[in-house]
Structures are given as structure tokens and as C-alpha cells.
Specification:
The chain is α/β, with parallel strands linked by helices. Helices cover 63% and strands 6% of the residues. The strands form 2 sheets. The chain has a 4-stranded mixed beta sheet with strand order 4-1-5-6, with no helix packed on it. It has a two-stranded antiparallel ribbon with strand order 2-3. 26% of the residues are buried.
């Protein structure tokens, strides 16, 4: 076995045998699912019951009932009784001190000439959640719409019959396929994985270099192998560790998916509302398999429609390219410092394009064919994350994809060459962190 092969074997086995790696590999998917469940539970548990006072000075959506001495909505159905939203109505706003002393949590005040405005004022004791704001906005919109129609010559039933809602379906003229917005979300999921693993395992490479340099082990190793061989062995070895973890997580996900499908087909989920809706459409759930259920459910049908083989292939290409590119820089940083504390200033120029790529990927979800998405999916420092969003959507011209991959591979070779220049000099230097000017000089040292 070559010297680089021995280093790769050492790096790989030393890490996959660690208890922390085994625990994280096994528990990672479970912890992720658990955290998602905790987050959902926290959002639900954090919901607050609201008692809302609606102030309607012009009587647009309320009327005064002499018999009970209260204001009531002209459209009771627009303000349905809920456990967590209770409405009361008045024609005059409460004074600030009165509102604070009352049991109302929110006060909505309609503006003069409200029909000409798209806004109303909401006063609160504690900032309401966006969910609460959306619920109240929906109720007010329905009430004002009914009131406005009532002032015309139309009755509401006629208005609803005449009202037209249109939803645009986007089709690719080249492929004749309908565009699915949720595909970009799946691409963003892969982009997040690439960002996370580049950051995590790049840091592993850097810490490994610092540890060997601090323990002076590297002085023994470089007596037998060249610094470039040592750096490449470390990068490739840790890369195999990352791929091992991804493969195990994918296998776990497939097992969970298979178990969920089996439970579904056994009837364990037949009481859910979504299932009931699909049962009605399909005329009964007895003969429905899990794949049919996914294909008939909005938001889940995308899972069936995705070209997973192509997507996983592109994930491997861009993950490996991005990892090699950034890990070589992390290795160079580890070689020029004596401890992790000194890495902070040098990490900044490396982390900035990585975080920038992450934010561009988020923006690309809403506009995967925008100029920013097209440009930064070509640039090698940002393409591993941004291109995954475009690849998932499926509208990337072949020449753009090839150009992105070729530039990424070429940049990987260049950055590895550049990092090796710094690595071979810095790995045996102690006691002083070099300046950027000294690092520039190291690039031109001859061996």
C-alpha cells in the first residue's frame, strides 16, 4: 500500500472507531427527528389563547343590540367561536391603561374609511405570533368582504358565484413538465447537508493537523512521507469518514421510510385527516399502497416525482468537490497555527464564502432561475450549495452544469496545490503565527 493509502487508512480507522462517531452515526437521525418533534411541540405549547377586542367606530362589521346592550358582528360566521380565539366588539377604543388592566390580550382598531385601506391597527400586551396575526387577519378580511358586498346590489351568494380565483400552473416549454415549487425545498435540504458536512469535517481536518503539530507527531511522520502526501491522506481519509456517515444515515432513512410504508399499508394511519381525504378520492383505502398515497397527497407527491438517482449523483459530485476545496484550506490553517485559539482570524476568509453560499441557496429557493442563482451556481466557492437547489428543480442547462463541475474540479486542484505550499512550510514552524504577507511568501518557496 502506498504511503498516502496508509495515511488514509489511519485517518479513517482512527475516526470511525471513536465512540463519539459511532454514537453520532447511530443517534444522528433519531436526534434530528427528536429535535424536530421538540420544536413542533414547543411551537404548539407556546401558543397563547387570545381574547380580542375589535373596535369598529363606523359600524362596518358590527351592530348594536339594544336587547343585550352589546355590539355583535353582522357576520357571526366570520368570527367563529374557537377555544383559543374569543372576539368581543365595541365602537370605541379602550384607553391604554384600561386595556392594560382588562383581560383582553389584543385590540384591533379599524381605521376611518377602512374600505380604502389594506391595514388596520393591532395593539397588544405581548407580541402575538404570526399564526395569531394570520388568523385575525383572515377573520377581519372575511367580515369586511361580506360588509362591502352587502352595500352593493349583489347578495353574498351571487358574489361568491361570480368571484373567480385563478392559480397559475407553471410548465416548462422545453420539457412540457409542470414546475413544482417544493422541489427547490428538497434541493435546499441537500444544500444544507453539504454546508453542514463541509463545515463539520473541514474542522475535523484542521483540528487533526493542529493536534499532530502540537504533539510533535508530525515531525516523525514527515520524516517518512512528504507534507503534501500527509495533507492529502488526511483530507481523503476524513472525507471517507464523512461519506461513511452519509451512507449510514441514508440507509437508516430508507429503513424508517420502509417501516412507515408498512405501517401505513397495515392501516395504522387510517384515522388521520389526510388519509381520510385520500380514501374519499380513491374510493377506499383497503387497496391503497404507500406509494399511491404519497403520489395523491399534496406536498408529498414530489417525493415520488423526484429523479433521486440523478439528484444523489449530483450531491456526491458537489459534496466531494466542496469538501476537498474547503478542507484543503482548513488543513492549511491548521498547519500555520499552534492551537485552535489562533485559528479565528484565519478562519474568517474561509468561512465568509461558505456562509455566503448558504444564504444565496436560501434565496435561490424562491427564484432558482434568477441571476444570483445562475452566477453563484457556477462560481466554485458557492456552487456546491447553490447548484443543488437548481439541480433539484431540474431546469439547469447541461452546459451550465458541466461548466460548474469543471470549474469546481479545476479550483479544487488549484486550492490543494496552494494549500500544500502553505502546509509544507507551516507544519514544521512553531512559536509564531505568520502574517498574511509571510503566507504569501510561502507560496513561492522552493523545496
Amino acid at each position: 500500500m502506498s504511503k498516502v493509502g496508509l495515511i488514509i487508512k489511519r485517518e479513517y480507522l482512527s475516526r470511525v472507531r471513536k465512540r463519539s462517531f459511532i454514537i453520532m452515526t447511530i443517534l444522528g437521525p433519531l436526534l434530528f427527528a427528536g429535535l424536530m418533534a421538540v420544536a413542533i411541540f414547543a411551537v404548539v405549547a407556546d401558543s397563547v389563547d387570545h381574547k380580542v377586542l375589535v373596535v369598529d367606530p363606523e359600524g362596518l362589521i358590527t351592530r348594536y343590540e339594544d336587547g343585550i346592550g352589546q355590539y355583535l358582528p353582522t357576520c357571526p360566521d366570520c368570527f367563529p367561536e374557537r377555544d383559543d380565539y374569543i372576539y368581543r366588539f365595541t365602537d370605541k377604543a379602550l384607553a391604554d391603561s384600561t386595556f392594560m388592566a382588562s383581560d383582553y390580550t389584543l385590540m384591533v382598531s379599524l381605521l376611518p374609511d377602512q374600505y380604502q385601506h389594506k391595514k388596520a391597527e393591532l395593539y397588544y400586551k405581548k407580541v402575538p405570533s404570526s399564526i395569531a396575526t394570520n388568523v385575525i387577519e383572515g377573520d377581519l378580511e372575511a367580515a369586511l368582504e361580506r360588509a362591502k358586498v352587502a352595500e352593493s346590489s349583489l347578495d353574498y351568494a351571487t358574489y361568491k358565484a361570480l368571484k373567480v380565483n385563478i392559480q397559475l400552473q407553471k410548465f416548462s416549454i422545453d420539457k412540457g413538465e409542470e414546475y413544482d415549487d417544493s422541489k427547490a425545498g428538497i434541493g435546499m435540504f441537500f444544500a444544507v447537508i453539504i454546508f453542514f458536512f463541509i463545515f463539520l469535517f473541514g474542522a475535523y481536518v484542521m483540528r487533526g493537523v493542529i493536534e499532530e503539530k502540537t504533539n510533535r507527531i508530525v515531525e516523525v511522520i514527515v520524516s517518512s512521507v512528504k507534507p503534501f502526501q500527509l495533507m492529502m491522506g488526511k483530507i481523503i481519509g476524513v472525507g471517507f469518514v464523512a461519506i461513511t456517515q452519509v451512507v449510514i444515515w441514508v440507509a437508516f432513512s430508507l429503513i424508517i421510510f420502509t417501516i412507515a410504508g408498512a405501517l401505513f399499508e397495515s392501516g395504522a394511519f387510517t384515522d388521520t385527516d389526510a388519509m381520510a381525504q385520500v380514501m374519499e378520492q380513491q374510493g377506499g383505502a383497503a387497496n391503497m399502497d404507500f406509494e399511491t398515497y404519497l403520489s395523491q397527497t399534496d406536498g408529498l407527491s414530489t417525493i415520488i416525482d423526484m429523479n433521486w438517482g440523478y439528484l444523489i449523483l449530483m450531491f456526491i459530485v458537489f459534496f466531494v468537490g466542496g469538501y476537498v476545496l474547503y478542507s484543503s484550506l482548513f488543513a492549511a490553517i491548521g498547519a500555520v497555527v499552534d492551537n485552535e485559539t489562533d485559528t479565528q482570524q484565519l478562519m474568517m476568509p474561509v468561512m465568509l464564502p461558505l456562509f455566503f453560499a448558504y444564504f444565496i441557496a436560501i434565496m435561490s429557493v424562491n427564484n432558482p432561475e434568477g441571476v444570483a442563482a445562475q452566477v453563484f451556481s457556477i462560481i466554485p466557492f458557492t456552487s456546491p450549495t447553490v447548484m443543488m437547489v437548481r439541480v433539484a428543480v431540474g431546469n439547469v442547462p447541461v452546459w451550465e452544469l458541466l461548466l460548474s463541475v469543471v470549474l469546481l474540479i479545476a479550483t479544487c486542484f488549484f486550492m490543494v496545490w496552494l494549500a500544500a505550499k502553505i502546509y509544507r512550510t507551516g507544519i514544521l514552524m512553531y512559536g509564531k503565527r505568520p502574517t498574511y504577507r509571510e503566507l504569501w511568501k510561502w507560496l513561492f518557496y522552493k523545496t
